[in-house]
């Protein structure tokens, strides 16, 4: 793909190479459409299990494609959940992986993490930060303080010019990151919401603070996982 993977663009601190708000919003919609197709439109449901910026590829027009199905899981349409071995990348894995009983909502959780990274311009685990290494913890604190605008990528003037709309998207990300998987939206619901469908209005202003996962940092979450089942950067 002409423009490589998404991580190459969203973590770039060079403003000349930074993506503007409309491009980021389009990428988020493209990822949502791709996952909605996998979850609902295939003959057998496909759970990707490794959604992260390295696995989102961009063509010459910055259209996003979900890639790398090396860890994906096929399940029957009538199956609501499946038992499988833990797999994925630390930082992007939903809390229910601890039980090994999962649904397609693990992809919704990972999607929420990727949306956070796209909007904030920083990795979910940032080793360069001494006091704020974990973006999810910072996100939870900023939400409690009513200061979500502090998280909007400051390396791009266009993102700052559209800060109100970006903050609303941050609230949608929070809805995807709720601890209880049943409370997360389906990907098709998110697509309808992003496209402005009247029958898919999400009340993102409800009190999601208590539902936003406050799981331990990814390092401790992954401490019991053997390296063979983890997916590293491609």
UniProtKB/TrEMBL annotation:
Keyword Transmembrane among record annotations: yes
Swiss-Prot/TrEMBL keywords: ATP-binding, Disulfide bond, EGF-like domain, Glycoprotein, Kinase, Lectin, Membrane, Nucleotide-binding, Phosphoprotein, Receptor, Serine/threonine-protein kinase, Signal, Transferase, Transmembrane, Transmembrane helix
The Protein kinase domain, residue ranges: 1-202
Entry annotated with the keyword tRNA-binding: no
One cellular component term from this protein's GO annotations in UniProt: membrane
Membrane-protein topology: Single-pass type I membrane protein
Its EC number(s): 2.7.11.1
SUPFAM superfamilies: Protein kinase-like (PK-like)
Matches recorded under Pfam families: Pkinase
Enzyme type, top EC level: transferase
Catalytic activity: L-threonyl-[protein] + ATP = O-phospho-L-threonyl-[protein] + ADP + H(+); L-seryl-[protein] + ATP = O-phospho-L-seryl-[protein] + ADP + H(+)
GO molecular function, one term: ATP binding
Cross-referenced InterPro entries: G-type_lectin_kinases/EP1-like (IPR051343), Kinase-like_dom_sf (IPR011009), Prot_kinase_dom (IPR000719), Ser/Thr_kinase_AS (IPR008271)
Predominant location: membrane
Subcellular location: Membrane
Protein name in the entry: non-specific serine/threonine protein kinase
UniProt source species: Gossypium trilobum
């Amino acid at each position: 793909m002409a423009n490589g993977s998404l991580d190459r663009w969203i973590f770039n601190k060079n403003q000349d190479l930074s993506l503007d708000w409309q491009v980021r919003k389009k990428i988020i919609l493209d990822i949502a459409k791709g996952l909605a197709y996998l979850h609902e439109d295939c003959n057998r449901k496909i759970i990707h299990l490794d959604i992260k910026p390295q696995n989102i590829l961009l063509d010459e027009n910055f259209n996003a494609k979900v890639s790398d199905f090396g860890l994906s899981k096929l399940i029957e349409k009538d199956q609501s959940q499946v038992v499988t071995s833990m797999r994925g990348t630390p930082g992007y894995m939903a809390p229910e992986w601890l039980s090994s009983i999962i649904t397609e909502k693990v992809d919704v959780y990972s999607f929420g993490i990727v949306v956070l990274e796209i909007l904030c311009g920083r990795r979910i685990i940032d080793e360069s930060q001494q006091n704020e290494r974990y973006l999810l913890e910072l996100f939870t604190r900023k939400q409690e303080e009513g200061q979500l605008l502090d998280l909007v990528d400051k390396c791009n003037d266009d993102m700052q010019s559209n800060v109100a709309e970006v903050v609303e998207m941050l609230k949608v990300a929070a809805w995807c990151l709720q601890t209880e998987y049943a409370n997360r939206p389906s990907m098709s619901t998110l697509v309808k919401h992003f496209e402005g469908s009247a029958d898919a209005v999400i009340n993102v202003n409800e009190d999601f603070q208590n539902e936003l996962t406050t799981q331990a940092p990814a390092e401790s979450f992954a401490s019991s996982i053997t390296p063979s089942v983890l997916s590293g950067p491609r």
